[in-house]
Specification:
Blueprint: E1 3-15, H1 24-31, E2 40-52, H2 64-79, E3 82-83, H3 84-87, H4 98-110, E4 118-124, E5 130-133
Parallel strand pairs: 1-3
Antiparallel strand pairs: 1-2, 2-4, 4-5
The structure holds nickel (II) ion (NI).
Length: about 140
């Protein structure tokens, strides 16, 4: 009896999409406003989902307070109100697209959550654009 449980969190962050192998012209052509050299911000909505069996004693798959605390302590502390390119170590050599941010967040959380739970990360960069890792099939 597998059940998925999700926690929604929020962070604001700045980034610049940029491939250092390319000229400024090519970066602007490919990434548009997202390649603005002076950075720009997004209001990210992060949805972390765990899939597992409800515990027979609590009826919970996972304590949502504990999940929220994990996300805060290991993701939001590093990402919220930060410049993802400059203030975090994760995007020194990795373009901070929503795709790559989702994968980074998944990797951070994966090592802190019991492997018996399946872990999924959904990240909204805007109300209309969002990504999911691992990919929904
Ligand atoms: Ni952007």
């Amino acid at each position: 009896m597998l059940v998925s449980v999700s926690r929604k969190e929020h962070f604001n962050a700045a980034h610049r999409l940029y491939n250092k192998e390319w000229t400024d012209e090519k970066n602007t052509a490919v990434f548009g406003k997202c390649s603005n050299p002076n950075y720009h911000g997004h209001n990210y909505e992060l949805i972390v989902t765990l899939v597992g069996e409800p515990d027979p004693q609590t009826g919970y798959v996972f304590d949502m307070k504990e999940l929220s605390d994990l996300v805060r302590a290991h993701v939001l502390v590093h990402f919220d109100h930060k410049n993802l390119n400059l203030d975090t170590p994760y995007f020194r050599d990795l373009n901070p697209t929503a795709e790559n941010i989702a994968v980074v967040i998944w990797r951070i959380l994966r090592q802190r959550i019991d492997p018996k739970f399946e872990l999924k990360v959904k990240l909204y960069e805007t109300e209309r654009n969002f990504v999911e890792y691992p990919a929904a099939r």
